[in-house]
Design goal:
Layout lengths: L9 H10 E10 L2 E8 L12 E6 L3 E5 L4 E3 L1 H20 L2 H36 L2 E4 L5 H4 L7
Parallel strand pairs: 3-6
Antiparallel strand pairs: 1-2, 3-4, 4-5
């Protein structure tokens, strides 16, 4: 299968022409076609940082920075609760089409959560770049991680 036409942005095409290495895979998923191409992009030059931006990862607030910026998971949790109700409704039905819809719902929720996390991470990285600081993740302070779990015998 050689010389298959595809569409992409000019920036993506320039990256493919300049940095593509090895084989590419054409994948059909969820009714759409995707081109998986390996690109070997050179590392960017590291800069000396003027301190660090501490980031504390949590559950209620997905991330909290030292600058008192809270990235809340409220919107994500709202969507998860809505999807939970829809999943329960579809699971009660139990038909083949309901199972197909459950599978699609699971993938859609995973994509949404990945997008929310990506946007939050991008905001944190942009803030660190703007202020010339590095990023330091705070160690986990939850009670569950502080001590080993008790084993019942």
């Amino acid at each position: 299968m050689n010389r298959v036409r595809f569409g992409c942005s000019e920036q993506q095409y320039a990256t493919l022409v300049a940095h593509r290495r090895g084989e590419s895979d054409l994948v059909h998923r969820d009714g759409k076609w995707f081109l998986y191409a390996t690109c070997d992009i050179p590392d960017v030059e590291m800069k000396e940082s003027d301190g660090f931006l501490g980031v504390d990862l949590g559950i209620a607030n997905i991330a909290t920075t030292d600058d008192a910026t809270r990235h809340s998971g409220k919107g994500l949790n709202r969507v998860r609760h809505r999807n939970q109700r829809l999943r329960a409704k579809l699971q009660r039905i139990g038909t083949k089409s309901a199972k197909r819809l459950l599978k699609a719902r699971r993938r859609k929720e995973a994509r949404f959560a990945a997008d929310v996390n990506h946007r939050i991470a991008k905001q944190i990285v942009t803030e660190a770049e703007r202020t010339g600081r590095g990023i330091a993740l705070q160690p986990d302070q939850s009670p569950r991680s502080a001590s080993p779990r008790a084993v019942r015998t």
